[in-house]
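From the shared-data thread, chain only:
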Amino acid sequence: MYLFGINSNFFNINDLHQPYMAELKSLDTIITLSKRRGFIFQSSEIYGGLAATYDYGPLGVELKRRVSGEWWKAMTQKHDNIEGIDAAILMHPKTWEASGHVASFNDPMIDDKVSKMRYRADHLIEMHIAKLEEKGEKDKADTVQHLLDTAGTRSTMAKDLYQIILDEQIKSPASGSFDWTEVRQFNLMFKTQFGAVASNDEDSIVYLRPETAQGIFVNFLNVQQTSRQAIPFGIAQIGKAFRNEIVARQFVFRMREFEQMEMQYFVKPGTDMDAYEAWKEERINYHVGNGIRRSNLRFMDHPHDKLAHYAKAAVDIQYKFPIGWQEIEGIHNRTDFDLSQHSQFSGKKMEYFDPQANERYTPYVIETSVGLDRSCLMVLCDAYREEELEGETRVVLKMHPKLAPVTVGVLPLIKKDELMQVGEKIRKDLSESFKVQFDEKGSVGKRYRRFDEGGTPYCVTVDFDGLADNTVTVRDRDTMQQERVGVDHLENYIRTKIKNWTPED
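Structure, as tokens:
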């Protein structure tokens, strides 16, 4: 059994004035915290950085591994009909012809000649529509919205967007000028040369993959036949993707090198919409189960006229970031588009044979696609709190303990050999099960604050009383309540706390 008690440092959090922040006011707060605590750094910072690329520091890489680990467990461990793969980043270039990326993976870009700033033309028009609505010009806003929705039907997409900008006299947000280049389509895929000798030959061009899904589709038959899975079944993958975003901003929300967690679920045609609805429910519950507050999540359906060319239905799970409601995960009914395209371009049939029904068919696909980097940013934003404690502000990350970069902090009360030795033994023993960090520098209060900012849920303090009865003080990050626990029971105590943790809402 646990040994509980009250030591001289115990206090009740309910006795303190501690207003929570209703919401995180600015993404800059998370950016600053990420640098200060070692979550995320600007890539190549000593050379001035490389735009829209970031490195994960000591705490960041631990958070990222835990977030991806929970997704992997949710997909491949809790479902016996979902298999995992790890496809190569470089794929045969015909893959991207079949998927439509070579022909249509473009953004419509326009440049302000005065400021030299580059913008997505459709985003400029959307901002203009929002301003019209703010001014109460609803009819005018609806008219421009209709022109935007039908862009590409009067002429090309680029020409239609450019004409809207000219007719509406939309000015540059940066310079306030009305001096634009024409709109042109910019393909977002990174090209590189395949082979030892660079060549202008088209046959030597390959692409860094802009998504991980195609690696799943081209391996559909390999996985199905080797795993002997019957429809319905899924294939999951976590991997890097690359997009040459011209307007890349908002920290790790939109990057040129990022990581995706995708699962493609293959179903019999006719059962696809039932599977689509089931995965919507499962995925929203997954995020809540990771400690994300339900009030900060919502579904946003794609209007029928804005569906991707491959989609029969699509919905985004959005999170309320400081920059507004933004997509965290997409759930799509991709029909049989991908397998049919790869069958056509490769000459290989991508069909499933059902021995019980004695029929062949091309499966439909339900996709769940979530950004790993965006997920990490969501966890940081949702966990961030500022609390007033006796006239001081405590910054704390109240994330789910199973996602915390460091699960346990071990603190000797003071730097005395006997306390240090016990603390080091506890660290070593707990490290078999948890990520543990030993910290003997500074006052106990300052060490608590460091662990609070890093999201560490439990701190174990070794004091002189414990040398006599083999107990330690365990401090809870969220409540700051402290309990005496027998050293022999520490691991089970922490496991129980993690299992029973519930988020605030």
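The longest strand covers residues 324-335.
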